[in-house]
Every structure is written in structure tokens, then in C-alpha cells.
Design a protein that fits this description.
The protein is mainly beta. It has a 4-stranded mixed sheet with strand order 1-2-8-7. Strands 3-4-6-5 form a 4-stranded mixed sheet. The protein is built from 2 helices and 8 strands; from the N terminus they run ββαββββαββ.
Length: about 120
């Protein structure tokens, strides 16, 4: 699972096996070990919501995804989901959860579990 924070947005990218785990078990989490502390990022299914939400705790970020969004996601072509979460200060937090595609450029990262990039083949 990849986590990207930029400006006022959170983006999560999931591999094949991570999408399957999320749709079947209802949650997925990873952590970064800083020695004395760990930082967790969690994506979980939530039956009681209509849009994605995020929660920030001292050492974790949790993304709540509506259960209806995840229904059959591991079996269909839908790339991902996007929501704008209204904040108390009047701004929005953009939340994006999507399937992770194989990069088109050279990378040393293991991409064996990523989705085939739809831009990897040319149409003639």
C-alpha cells in the first residue's frame, strides 16, 4: 500500500492482493517503524457512510471507505474512488483510493503485484 500526502489530499494506491484483502476482510493496514514509535496508515470498510472520510490520530491515518464502494472492486475494472471531505475550517480534504498500476518508466520497485497499466499498449 502506498500513501501519498500532497497539499490537502490523501492518496492511497493498492496492489492486486491488497485490493482483494480489503474487499474480503474489510481492512488493510501498514506501518512505518521509526524506532521508538510507529506510524500506521489504515484503510477500512464502513457500512454506515456514503463518502470516504479520514481520521488523523497522533500516530496514524485511517481512511474509511463506504462498503458499497468496495463491493466486487477486486473483480471489476473500476480504478478507484474519490471523495471530498468537508472540514470544520471550511476547506476540503480530497481522498483518493485507487488500484496501483505498473509504472511505464524504469523503477527498481517490485511491481509484480500491480495492475497492468492501461497505457502500456499502443492502439493501432
Amino acid at each position: 500500500m502506498k500513501l501519498r500526502l500532497k497539499d490537502n489530499s490523501i492518496r492511497i494506491r493498492l496492489t492486486h492482493s491488497e485490493v482483494k484483502l480489503l474487499t474480503e476482510s474489510g481492512s488493510i493496514e501498514e506501518q512505518v517503524d521509526f524506532g521508538e514509535q510507529q506510524f500506521q496508515y489504515i484503510v477500512k470498510k464502513n457500512e454506515g457512510i456514503n463518502e470516504m472520510t479520514a481520521q488523523l490520530n497522533p500516530y496514524s491515518i485511517s481512511i474509511n471507505v463506504p462498503a458499497v464502494f468496495l463491493k466486487d472492486w477486486n473483480e471489476n475494472e473500476k480504478v478507484g474512488f474519490s471523495s471530498l471531505m468537508k472540514l470544520n475550517n471550511g476547506s476540503d480534504l480530497k481522498i483518493l483510493v485507487e488500484k496501483d498500476f505498473v509504472c511505464l518508466d524504469d523503477t527498481e520497485e517490485d511491481q509484480s503485484d500491480n495492475y497492468i497499466n492501461p497505457n502500456s499498449t499502443c492502439l493501432t
